[in-house]
Specification:
Elements: H1 10-31, H2 37-44, E1 60-63, E2 67-71, H3 72-85, E3 94-97, H4 108-118, H5 120-133, E4 136-138, H6 145-152, E5 159-162, E6 176-179, H7 182-189, E7 194-197, E8 200-207, H8 216-227, E9 235-240, H9 242-245, H10 249-257, E10 266-269, H11 273-281, H12 285-293, H13 302-306, E11 314-319, E12 326-328, E13 336-338, H14 339-349, E14 355-361, H15 368-383, E15 392-395, H16 399-407, H17 410-415, E16 419-421, E17 444-448, E18 464-468, H18 471-478, E19 492-493, E20 499-500, E21 522-523, E22 560-565, H19 572-575, H20 588-591, E23 609-611, E24 618-620, H21 621-630, E25 635-638, H22 651-658, E26 661-666, H23 671-679, E27 683-687, E28 701-704, E29 715-721, E30 727-733, H24 738-746, H25 749-756
Parallel strand pairs: 2-3, 2-5, 3-4, 5-6, 8-9, 8-11, 9-10, 14-15, 14-17, 15-16, 17-18, 22-25, 25-26, 26-27
Antiparallel strand pairs: 1-7, 4-21, 12-13, 19-20, 22-28, 23-24, 27-30, 28-29, 29-30
Helix pairs in contact: 1-2, 3-5, 3-7, 8-10, 11-12, 15-18, 24-25
Length: 757
């Protein structure tokens, strides 16, 4: 397999630009109007630009991404599915990155050693399978997938899919990068196109420039406040304007990374001088030169900038001159307020004012600039006689960043005020955090520079209140350990009794001496491994070979019992929690023991419980699902708004399918989860009338009436049968395309593609 290197080779970039130029000639003839940046890159990757329908928000299109990236937790299931496809090599450049299975506890060296021992079976499987199928492998400690991709593989104008919801991080370097489930990745790795809904376009016009304490993180926190967690669903968010040009590439990546928190398909910035500087600094001068020569592909047409309201479905204006530092949370990334209002808000809501832990890093904020601004605050603190009043943890994004900030003394600055440096991994951001300081159910407050703050997300404790801010905000607040500290106006009393005040942070965007050139942990595939047999022990607790799901029998579903009715927010963390369950991501049967365990079920007082139709008793939902599965009872799940928000983990779709789920009926879906359900052969439906949600009782039975005539844009009629003999007919909608209906009929997308082979 060519192009399997530690960096994207120039010939791939050249080929991409040639493809874009050719396809866009056709697209311009069809649309007969100027194009935005995201349209150029997305439509330029169309499989067949002459036939693609470009109706935003309605039609589906086939696209050919340039590469695939997978992290270790999701790669297991993706590779197990790829093995079912029966191919001997991936069709596009693909990489696997080991970043999720490293638990944060005592510090980098200790934690890496523990992880390497505990996860040896999985890491060896990933490495061996990657080598066999022509996949580049980044081992434990090399870095977090999105930071490594930004440093090594992202290039302006490219298109990538990744098995992680924060894949859009690469949009900071002008890439259409979309988070998907493993089944989508398998399609592309197998040479099939990536099928997705044509997204709407949201424009964010940035004026002015960041100043003072305001950071790129504060831009996306403000956007999340404006759009909410579902406001950008099935949309690309495109940032432009003079304000955008003032933001570093890694700052832009922070913003595009957290587009996942507003439901966006992806987010993107124009290519500019900052991008050129970043490419040169990361030893990609040849890519920078080629991108400059093709700048017409990497910005919107001039007419778009002159009259943006004519080209975007929604337009947002943000003046960076007036933007304050923001803090969001708890429990949701769209509950925002400026730092000046946090004290009042925290007090009025009764949040625990004392902060238990402060955390900096993750894929969202672990760049050289991020660590530099955090270190600037730390240096100030030391000079003013201050130190962190609470445990302070730093997660570098990659070995390249870690080695560089260590060389430049930035890590020491942070350690001097009490920081512990963790491994170059996700750690506490995704629930891989071993805490000794608080027990389950104990209420406490944490603050981080991470991207996601759902209940139990960071430490498995639903009583932990998680707040999010920029790295400099987190460091500043660690110096008092209190939520009611406004570092822009308040003083701090040091150990000598002096009242001191912090100054606005400054830092270099890029290292003066360049990055330490470091690809430690990268292993290229070996040609000699092509014929190697991948053996999985049948007794393994960590890995399990997959079998194909059964085909639809062509009949209506009759009298499906309701396993649960989710009330309020139901993320993929609720459906299939991470944390301690991450170790079972390669074993479908074992990980199904967590199914719906975090769901707030309308029919029970305790979360994670459901009532059985067999004896009317309450059981843990994974136990109930297993009980129904063993008795061959198929079932339906009911959900609220934005069901499946959060991670791209396809386990949240595969587990219900494995346990006998036929239909998921909700008020609305998050994009990735709906796509994952389709891929696995589960029928995703939305209420035509959201008020019908209230009609459904725990012991009702639901039947489809006209499923046999399913077609694109058709309604599905459902018969809701009550135990008192009465019934209701309700109407549900679906968004399945012709191809997706074939997936459903075949039992899964993989089954369908196998048939086509």
């Amino acid at each position: 397999m060519g192009n399997v290197y530690s960096k994207t080779p120039l010939d791939l970039v050249e080929t991409t630009y040639k493809k874009l130029n050719g396809n866009l000639e056709v697209i311009r003839e069809v649309l007969k109007r100027p194009l935005t940046l995201s349209e150029k890159i997305l439509y330029g990757h169309a499989s067949n630009p002459k036939e693609i329908s470009l109706s935003r928000g309605n039609s589906y299109g086939d696209f050919n991404p340039d590469r695939v990236a997978m992290q270790d937790a999701t790669a297991q299931m993706a590779l197990l599915q790829f093995m079912l496809a029966g191919l001997d090599r991936t069709a596009v450049p693909t990489t696997v990155h080991c970043d999720h299975l490293i638990q944060a506890y005592k510090g980098s060296e200790f934690d890496l050693n523990v992880s390497s021992n505990d996860n040896r079976e999985v890491f060896e499987f990933l490495q061996e399978t990657s080598s066999k199928y022509g996949i580049g492998f980044w081992g434990p400690g090399a870095g977090i997938i999105h930071q490594v991709v930004l440093e090594q593989y992202a290039f302006p104008g490219g298109m990538m899919i990744g098995t992680d919801s924060h894949t859009p991080n690469a949009g900071g370097l002008t890439m259409v990068a979309i988070g998907v489930g493993g089944a989508d990745a398998v399609d592309v790795m197998s040479g099939w196109p990536f099928n997705t809904k044509i997204p709407n376009l949201i424009g964010v016009h940035l004026t002015g420039s960041l100043n003072g304490w305001a950071a790129p993180k504060d831009i996306i926190l403000k956007v999340a406040e404006i759009l909410t967690v579902k406001g950008a669903t099935n949309s690309i968010v495109e940032y432009f304007g003079e304000g955008a040009k003032s933001i570093s590439t890694t700052g832009k990546a922070t913003i595009t990374n957290m587009g996942a928190e507003i439901g966006a398909t992806c987010s993107i910035f124009d290519f500019d001088d900052k991008g050129i500087e970043y490419l040169i600094s990361t030893d990609r001068k040849d890519v920078a030169k080629l991108a400059e020569e093709n700048m017409n592909l990497l910005v919107s047409d001039e007419e778009v900038y002159r009259d943006p309201e004519n080209y975007f479905d929604q337009l947002i204006e943000i003046n960076l001159d007036t933007l304050e530092p923001h803090v969001v949370g708890p429990h949701t990334p769209d509950l925002a307020r400026p730092i000046s209002e946090l004290k009042k808000d925290a007090t009025s809501n009764g949040y625990p004012i004392e902060i238990s832990n402060a955390l900096v890093g993750s894929c969202t904020n672990s760049s050289y600039e991020d660590i530099g601004r955090a270190a600037n605050i730390a240096r100030q603190a030391k000079l003013k006689g201050l130190k962190s009043q609470i445990p302070l943890m730093i997660s570098p994004g990659s070995e390249q960043v870690r080695a560089t900030v260590e060389r430049d003394g930035l890590l020491k600055d942070l350690e001097d005020i009490g920081a512990t440096v963790l491994a170059n991994a996700c750690g506490p951001c995704i629930g891989q955090w071993k805490r000794d300081d608080y027990k389950q159910g104990e209420e406490n407050t944490i603050i981080s520079s991470f991207n996601r703050n759902f209940p139990a997300r960071n430490d498995g404790n639903a009583a932990t209140l998680s707040f999010i801010g920029s790295p400099e905000t987190v460091i500043a607040m660690s110096l008092t350990g209190r939520l009611d500290f406004d570092f822009t106006n308040d003083t701090i009393t040091n150990d000598d009794g002096e009242e001191v005040m912090l100054e606005e942070p400054t830092a270099n965007e890029l290292p003066d001496m360049g990055f330490v050139s470091n690809i430690d942990g990268f292993i290229a595939p070996s040609e000699s491994d092509r014929d190697k047999e991948i053996v999985i022990d049948s007794s393994s607790e960590r890995l399990q070979l997959l079998t194909k799901f059964t085909e639809w029998d062509g009949k209506d579903f009759v009298d499906l019992p309701i396993i649960m009715k989710a009330a309020g927010k139901c993320t993929t963390d609720h459906i299939s929690p991470a944390g301690k369950w991450l170790k079972y991501r390669g074993h479908l049967e074992n990980i199904s023991e967590n199914l719906f365990i975090g769901v707030n079920n309308k029919y029970t007082d305790k979360s994670g419980y459901g009532k059985s139709i067999l004896d009317s008793k309450e059981y843990l939902l994974p136990e109930l699902a297993k009980m129904y599965h063993e008795k061959n009872i198929f079932w339906i799940a009911i959900g609220d708004d934005n069901y499946g928000e959060g991670s791209s983990r396809e386990h949240a779709a595969m587990e219900p399918r494995f346990r006998g789920c036929k239909v998921v009926l909700v008020k609305s879906f998050a994009r990735i989860h709906e796509a994952n359900l389709k891929k696995q052969g589960v029928l995703p439906l939305t209420f035509d009338n959201p008020e019908d949600y209230d009609l459904i009782k725990w012991d009702d039975k639901i039947s489809t009436v006209n499923l046999t005539s399913i077609a694109p844009r058709s309604n599905i009629k459902l018969l809701l049968s009550h135990t008192d003999g009465t019934s209701h007919e309700i109407v549900a909608n679906h968004s399945l395309s012709d191809d997706q209906i074939e997936w459903f009929k075949a039992g899964s997308a993989l089954n369908y593609l196998s048939k086509k082979e």
